[in-house]
Every structure is written in structure tokens, then in C-alpha cells.
Design goal:
This protein has 128 residues and is α+β, with helices and mostly antiparallel strands. 15% of the residues lie in helices and 23% in strands. It has a four-stranded antiparallel beta sheet with strand order 4-3-5-6, with no helix packed on it.
Length: 128
């Protein structure tokens, strides 16, 4: 789960602002690791991931929301796909992009991320 933050007021962020703000990343919460099997990777485009806050669904999206396919080759890296990276870097995290827009965080909120198929492990965090 990527936790984003920005120094840009009111979240009106242009692409240039995002780059200047180091992609608005601030934290990451990591769950249980999974093997990057062909079956798992092939299904990521159609995988639905939902985010709940305090038991209420606040956002969801498909893997296809990430540039059309989270396994598409990285820009500027011809022939190197996220799939190739996932298979070759067993102990690494591979961030492909977000499947939904960011949501505001409130201290004390309990956030849960769940996979629609259950093939990806769930993750629950409490905002401090």
C-alpha cells in the first residue's frame, strides 16, 4: 500500500508538480510476500483491488487502470516489463502505479486493502 502526501495545496497536482514532489510518495506498507507466478502476473490486469476505511469501501480499481496494464514495459526501458522485473527481483517491491485515486487519511482510521479474487494477500493498517 503506497501512502501518498504532497506539498501541493488542495491536491491540484500537475505531472510536473508530481515529479518535483518526488511522486508524492511518503510511506509504504508491505504485506505478506507472494510468488510472482505466471498465473498471478497474467491476471493482474483484470484484478480488482478495493480500499476500505473503517469498514466502508472508499475506493477500488482494476489493474488495467495502471497505464492499461501493470505489466506493460516501463517507459524508456524497451523490452523490460514489470513482469520481467518481478520475476528477476524476488526480494524487491515493484511499484507499477495506482489503480485508484488517493483518498484522505484520518488519524485513527483503519485501512484495509483486499483483492477481488483473493490471489493477492490483504493488508490492514491503522493511521497514526
Amino acid at each position: 500500500m503506497e501512502i501518498i502526501d504532497s506539498r501541493v495545496a488542495d491536491r491540484h497536482v500537475s505531472q510536473a508538480d508530481t515529479v518535483a514532489d518526488n511522486a508524492s510518495s511518503t510511506r509504504v506498507a508491505v504485506g505478506r510476500p507472494v510468488d510472482a507466478t505466471d498465473d498471478l502476473l497474467t491476471g493482474l490486469r483484470d484484478e480488482c483491488v478495493g480500499l476500505s476505511a473503517d469498514g466502508e469501501r472508499v475506493a477500488f480499481g482494476l489493474g488495467a487502470e495502471v497505464l492499461g496494464d501493470p505489466l506493460r514495459p516501463w517507459p524508456g526501458r524497451p523490452g523490460r516489463s514489470t513482469r520481467t522485473a518481478a520475476l528477476s527481483t524476488r526480494a524487491s517491491c515493484c511499484f507499477t502505479g495506482s489503480v485508484h485515486a488517493g483518498v484522505p487519511l484520518t488519524p485513527g482510521s483503519r485501512l484495509a486493502v483486499r483483492s477481488g479474487t483473493g490471489r493477492l494477500p490483504g493488508l490492514t493498517v491503522t493511521v497514526r
